[in-house]
Write a structure and sequence with these properties.
Oligomer: single chain
Number of helices: 2
Strand content: over 45%
Structural class: mainly beta
Strand order of the largest sheet: 1-2-3-4
Order of helices and strands: EEEEEEEHEEEEEEEEHEEEE
């Protein structure tokens, strides 16, 4: 049975792999976020940490150097930030520990890394700013990211993208979207974008997906590629909306990125 937090069942959020056998998975209620470490061969939870300050951890991503970054809200400030997680301290103390790298203000967002011509870049995709402004994909050089950094460019991929991840197999940027671009009805989608086209596009350009596939449910959340086999894993938090059917609060995997 799912763990109850303050009497509530948490919904799944971001996920990433630290190696082919270890999954990090976040789950959250409005007040509490938990980060789990899962040993995949045994399907056992091997560690957990929680927080009432960092909310959701809606995007988790592992860098090429092994660091794990997260996108999260911060309760005390009402902002959304990128933080570099300290997994050893988090799991040792049972409380999520991380260092802030960048703030996106009120707009929720997700994080992915891509190596372009030997330089690691970080992509940060906004979900939907509350101010009415259109969300943007921010592109930075990963080693340049700091609180006062300016993006190399900002591009338009549309609204309601929950998470992004770059496939090591085909080098495409995949997006988990819980509403198709240009459609009013909610539907879950997995889309792919050409990273080189993103890097070549001028600031402000609108980017079209290379391909689009229906997601497992309409309530799409985090995605990640498992090292070794290249399968795309994704979390969902319901069938048609958040927490409407707990059978669909689940982690899925697919080979679509291999075709």
């Amino acid at each position: 049975a799912p763990e109850l937090l303050d009497g509530q069942t948490p919904t799944l959020q971001g996920l990433t792999f630290t190696d082919s056998n270890t999954l990090l998975l976040a789950a959250a209620t409005p007040a509490v976020t938990v980060l789990y470490r899962v040993d995949l061969p045994t399907r056992q939870l091997t560690a957990r940490a929680e927080s009432r300050e960092f909310v959701h951890l809606n995007s988790l991503r592992t860098r090429g150097n092994g660091e794990v970054w997260a996108a999260s809200g911060v309760v005390s400030r009402g902002e959304n930030i990128i933080l570099r997680l300290d997994l050893d301290a988090s799991f040792r103390t049972g409380s999520i520990v991380g260092a802030e790298l960048y703030s996106f203000g009120k707009a929720g967002f997700s994080v992915a890394f891509a190596d372009v011509d030997g330089v690691e870049h970080v992509f940060c995709q906004q979900w939907a700013p509350g101010s009415g402004a259109e969300p943007r994909l921010y592109v930075f050089r990963a080693n340049d990211l700091r609180l006062d950094a300016l993006p190399l460019k900002r591009l338009d991929l549309g609204r309601r993208i929950q998470d992004i991840a770059v496939s090591p197999a085909d080098g495409l940027l995949y997006a988990s979207r819980n509403a198709a671009q240009g459609e009013s009805a909610s539907r879950g989608w997995l889309e792919s974008y050409d990273v080189r086209a993103i890097m070549a596009a001028p600031d402000g350009a609108a980017m079209a997906p290379v391909a689009r596939h229906p997601h497992a449910t309409e309530a799409a959340e985090g995605i990640a590629f498992r090292p070794g086999d290249g399968r795309l894993w994704g979390a969902t938090e319901g069938l048609r909306k958040v927490a409407d059917d707990w059978a669909y609060s689940a982690v899925w995997s697919t080979e679509l990125a291999l075709h």
